[in-house]
Design a protein that fits this description.
Blueprint: H1 3-23, H2 37-49, H3 56-70, H4 76-90, H5 92-95, H6 100-124, H7 136-158
Helix pairs in contact: 1-2, 1-3, 2-4, 2-7, 3-4, 4-6, 6-7
Family: Belongs to the MreD family.
Protein name: Rod shape-determining protein MreD
Function: Involved in formation of the rod shape of the cell. May also contribute to regulation of formation of penicillin-binding proteins.
Length: about 160
């Protein structure tokens, strides 16, 4: 298999794995702490490959797939992922060269922005205000970011993919 084809399937496989991880059920008590896996994987690819692979169109389609799989308001995650990818691509040249702790703080800021956007979308949909624990997910995702980034980067380097 050629490197280009292997690279493509690695990219698609990580995106599919993030959707599967998003669907893994957790006990009701831990539901608020569930990381937003599609956002983390899209952020990784946006930082590593830039606009070569991750575009706003891909983020929108990926978000629509996530919407269909989770059964939420159609377009909710699509809009959230588009905003997230837009900001990540806009500041990609800076974010890539941050030390890991600064990059983690930037990812936390992006995920908090994502939560705020979700709060606005759900408020317009007529849902009630979520509990305070609802804000825990971005912090858990930010804690997982260095490990996910290093894991995906190491696997990508072992496969010698671009």
């Amino acid at each position: 298999m050629s490197r280009q084809r292997l690279s493509f399937w690695w990219f698609v496989g990580t995106l599919a794995a993030s959707l599967v991880l998003m669907l893994v059920p957790l006990p009701h008590v831990l539901d608020a702490f569930k990381p937003y896996w599609p956002a983390l994987v899209l952020l990784y690819w946006a930082l590593e490959s830039g606009e070569q692979r991750v575009t706003l169109g891909l983020a929108f389609l990926f978000g629509l797939c996530a919407d269909l799989l989770t059964g939420v308001l159609l377009g909710e995650q699509a809009v959230r992922l588009c905003v997230l990818v837009f900001i990540a691509l806009r500041f990609r040249s800076r974010l890539r060269f941050f030390p890991m702790w600064q990059q983690t703080l930037a990812v936390l800021a992006l995920l908090l922005n994502d939560r705020f956007l979700l709060l606005v979308v759900r408020a317009f949909a007529g849902e009630s205000t979520p509990p305070a624990l609802w804000w825990a997910s971005p912090f858990v995702s930010a804690v997982l970011w260095p490990f996910l980034f290093l894991l995906l980067d190491d696997l990508r380097m072992r496969l010698r993919l671009q």
